[in-house]
């Protein structure tokens, strides 16, 4: 799971395209020059130009919690596996590991690969990287994945109340030699084990380099080592960054692009104009531009529904009023989700009242999770919202309420923010809302500090399993940032996490966990993400996984045009 960045850029919009409307500046979505035709020959200049709505929050794999940073790591780092077209491929692991009879010990052989400074990547680099993710001194931000997948002792090392807390040397990972990595689990591996190993948290890291860099580590493109398809050639904070092909990557033959330029553009109208003038090669279309682009450039427009989900968080930790379930239900019911997805987004997103998305994963009976668990959170209903609000006022002894609504900045999110705020104020008389729109990095910081009453949040899955949408909400999970706690939910998630052998039992436990969460209403689901974008016809080979890193251009290429 990664905290999603709201944006319209295609290459990162698969995670998070909140394609919101700006007032049209006039004209259609046609390109200003006729470059729509392309041949089947590779272009001599393999430079891909893209725009994105936010800067990189971090280059340190140990601090990655968001989709933007995760994608940078995915393109510049190589782990045991790599995701491509929703399937894992062996990356630095040469192939299937040797598996013990009890299916708890996995021994991987590593292929030859150098770091960007010329030194070889070793099994010890994986050991250090994984241990650093579990070292409290490194302040790891996303290490619960190690416990989720069942790495030996990970749960104990991460638990402040356990005698093994902080003893990362006891983690179930060992270098048998420079090219042999042994991973020990507490239970047989779940189905998503290999795909999860492609995530930023499981990348190798070089101890000597990190220690030598000190506080400078990961503060610039030069203060990081790379071993993946690309290296980060430059990073101008607030403006953009540039990837260059890594000529030392073991699978470089499949990497056709020589350069990928990202520029930070927060205004949707600016991004559209950049696309029209052929300065960027793709752009997410906001509601206002969809119809005009479909009319003028039908062959360039594409649409899809993805797996990220978006919701409102309720801060029950520091706002005592939001501990009242009728108040939470009132806020959730006040929002017309169908109006949101049809009039504000208009990008293929669908209104949702669930945690685990539709068309994401099937169970042992072959049914989609949503078919197996059709019940959902209370949907938008203005009359019901007023009833909940009246009950909340009586129970809390209040007649009015002010809410601080934390969201992301950028023109593409402003209409969504205003829509949600207006719906709450309109349907809950006496409630006022202040919108606090922040740059992505500061938005994450304020979220972690509980500096909000309600927060607009999104989640992109790490692996293809319902657990990636459920385990973040447990009491001891810092990524929850709601202050919500439910022992029944915690126990269901715990037993489902540990019960990988009996998939039918585990599947039912995850269904019951979601139902338990629905009953308590700690969040208000809004929509499952869809997106509509325009892409130049000469851009080929982009991969958009439904989980993990949201965009993969490691095998993309450009045709002559």
From TrEMBL:
Domain Solute-binding protein family: 89-479
Subcellular locations according to the entry: Cell envelope
Name under which the protein is recorded: Peptide ABC transporter substrate-binding protein
Domain of life: Bacteria
Family matches, as Pfam families: SBP_bac_5 (PF00496)
Signal peptide positions (record): 1-23
One Gene Ontology term of the molecular function aspect: peptide transmembrane transporter activity
Entry's family note: Belongs to the bacterial solute-binding protein 5 family.
Keywords noted in UniProt: Signal, Transport
GO biological process: peptide transport
GO CC aspect terms: ATP-binding cassette (ABC) transporter complex; cell envelope; periplasmic space
């Amino acid at each position: 799971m990664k905290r999603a960045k709201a944006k319209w850029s295609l290459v990162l919009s698969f995670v998070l395209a909140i394609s919101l409307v700006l007032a049209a500046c006039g004209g259609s979505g046609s390109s200003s020059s006729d470059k729509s035709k392309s041949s089947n020959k590779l272009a001599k200049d393999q430079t891909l130009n893209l725009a994105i709505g936010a800067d990189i929050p971090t280059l340190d794999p140990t601090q990655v919690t968001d989709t933007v940073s995760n994608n940078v790591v995915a393109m510049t780092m190589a782990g045991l596996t790599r995701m491509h077209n929703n399937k894992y491929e062996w990356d630095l692991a040469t192939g299937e590991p040797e598996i013990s009879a009890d299916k708890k010990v996995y021994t991987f052989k590593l292929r030859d690969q150098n770091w960007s400074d010329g030194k070889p990547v070793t099994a010890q680099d994986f050991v250090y990287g994984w241990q650093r993710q579990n070292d409290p001194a490194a302040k790891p931000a996303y290490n619960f994945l190690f416990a989720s997948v069942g790495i030996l002792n990970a749960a104990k090392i991460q638990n402040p109340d356990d005698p093994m807390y902080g003893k990362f040397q006891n983690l179930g990972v060992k270098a048998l030699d420079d090219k042999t990595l042994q991973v020990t689990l507490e239970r047989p591996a779940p189905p998503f084990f290999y795909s999860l190993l492609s995530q930023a948290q499981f990348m190798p890291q070089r101890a000597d380099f990190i220690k030598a860099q000190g506080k400078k580590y990961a503060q610039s493109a030069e203060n990081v080592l790379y071993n993946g398809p690309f290296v980060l050639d430059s990073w101008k904070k607030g403006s953009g960054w540039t990837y260059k092909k890594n000529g030392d990557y073991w699978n470089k033959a499949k990497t056709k692009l020589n350069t990928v330029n990202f520029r930070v553009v927060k205004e949707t109208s600016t991004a559209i104009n950049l696309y029209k003038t052929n300065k960027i090669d793709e752009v997410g279309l906001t509601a206002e531009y969809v119809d005009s682009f479909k009319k003028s450039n039908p062959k360039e427009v594409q649409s899809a529904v993805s797996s990220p989900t978006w919701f409102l968080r309720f801060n029950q930790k520091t706002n005592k009023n939001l501990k009242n379930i009728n108040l939470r239900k009132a806020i959730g019911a006040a929002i017309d989700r169908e109006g949101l997805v049809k009039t504000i987004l208009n990008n293929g997103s669908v209104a949702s009242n669930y945690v685990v998305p539709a068309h994401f994963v099937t169970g042992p009976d072959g049914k989609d999770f949503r078919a197996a668990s059709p019940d959902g959170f209370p949907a938008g209903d203005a009359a019901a919202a007023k009833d909940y609000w009246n009950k909340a006022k009586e129970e809390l002894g209040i007649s009015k309420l002010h809410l601080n609504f934390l969201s992301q900045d950028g023109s593409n999110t402003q209409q969504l923010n205003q829509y949600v705020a207006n719906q709450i104020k309109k349907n809950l008389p006496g409630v006022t809302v202040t919108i606090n729109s922040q740059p992505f990095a500061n938005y994450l910081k304020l979220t972690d500090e509980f500096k909000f009453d309600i927060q607009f949040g999104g989640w992109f899955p790490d692996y293809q399993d319902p657990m990636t949408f459920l385990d973040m909400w447990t009491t001891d999970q810092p990524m929850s940032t709601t202050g919500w706690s439910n022992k029944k939910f915690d126990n269901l998630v715990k037993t489902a996490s540990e019960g990988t052998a009996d998939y039918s039992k585990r599947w039912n436990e995850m269904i019951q966990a979601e139902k338990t969460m629905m009953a308590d209403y700690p969040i208000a689901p809004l929509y499952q993400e869809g997106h509509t974008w325009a892409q130049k016809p000469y851009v080929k080979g982009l991969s958009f996984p439904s989980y993990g890193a949201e965009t993969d251009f490691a095998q993309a290429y450009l045709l002559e045009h």
